[in-house]
Amino acid sequence: MTERLNGQNGQAPTVLVVGGTSGINRGIAEGFARDGARVAVVSRSEDKVRATLEALRALGAEAEGFAADVRDPEALQQGVAGLCDRWGPLDVVVSGAAGNFPALASGMSANAFRSVVEIDLLGSFHVLQAVYPHLRRPSSVIQISAPQAVLPMVGQSHVCAAKAGVDMLTRTLAQEWGPEGIRVNSVLPGPIAHTEGMKRLAPSTALQEQVTASVPLKRLGQAEDIYRACRFLASADADFITGAVLPVDGGWSLSGASRVGDALGQALKG
Ligand code: NAP
Ligand code: COA
């Protein structure tokens, strides 16, 4: 399927996954690696970057990466420029770094709210600005959003505000960059098994069971589900799709996510 991605004719596409060293984003990085792309990853931890590069190379991919915090625009700009000096322009960028913890707005410090908005929303802006001069025309940018962007969830005011902003960034930049052939879309994952995000939102077995029961398709997602959606959005099959927010969530963002927020609220109120 590699030839259907927006790579240069006959060449492996170059994919950058920001936040690609664990969970869903790592699954996305590994999926692209398995499908023959050159894959670069970025996150804060040098150790996580190193371990991920080993895993990607073990899959047979050419892989690079660097450690940077998405709250540091200069570090991102330098890292991306260095990568693209060596590899040339980027065909696909996945922006998925995020932070989350459950907390009621009434008890959360301003700094707690700010930290999530700075990572998820401002960080996404920094990523998109840093990659913009290095994107191939045409290319595909994919932001990893969340059901909290479209449904309010108790205990998630910071994430709801930040991810709604991420999707508006997607839509706005789709308009600004569309004339250059850069497509910008969001993928909105549902609850994904074995991830940090799920552990934080549903720390008990009882809550995990409630989450699964609240998904219309009655299962948790896998990172592979999200990768397949990213592969589609990166491919020529999606070359008339931009500014879309694509739920890949078993229907969870129709209402189930809000019901889980009610349970989370009960747990937080003790
Ligand atoms: P995760 O394993 O914690 O992944 C987060 C990634 O982002 C890690 O690679 C982390 O690495 C990096 N990161 C965090 N803060 C960063 C920062 N300030 N600068 C640079 N990198 C940073 O989480 P996940 O649960 O798989 O979630 C991944 C994405 O999916 C997020 O965007 C999340 O909002 C979204 N999502 C998740 C779920 C779910 O069920 N898990 C559902 C809906 C949406 P370092 O620690 O090395 O920085
Ligand atoms: N409840 C309430 N406030 C919390 C909190 C919690 N569970 N966890 C952190 N905070 C607050 C801190 O107390 C601090 O506020 P303060 O200065 O007023 O005390 C603020 O949030 C920032 O915390 P800090 O630990 O300094 O931030 P950081 O930049 O090192 O880490 C986080 C960012 C907090 C988002 C951290 O959880 C993280 O790095 N997460 C990445 C992984 C992740 O969340 N994965 C799931 C993705 S869906």
Automatic annotation (TrEMBL):
Residues in Ketoreductase domain copies: 13-195
Family as reported in the entry's similarity comment: Belongs to the short-chain dehydrogenases/reductases (SDR) family.
Keyword tags: NADP, Oxidoreductase
Gene3D superfamilies per record: NAD(P)-binding Rossmann-like Domain
InterPro entries recorded: DECR2-like, KR_dom, NAD(P)-bd_dom_sf, SDR_fam
Pfam families assigned to the protein according to its UniProt record, in alphabetical order: adh_short_C2 (PF13561)
GO molecular function, one term: 2,4-dienoyl-CoA reductase (NADPH) activity
Single Gene Ontology BP annotation: fatty acid catabolic process
Organism name: Marinimicrobium koreense
Name of this protein: NAD(P)-dependent dehydrogenase (Short-subunit alcohol dehydrogenase family)
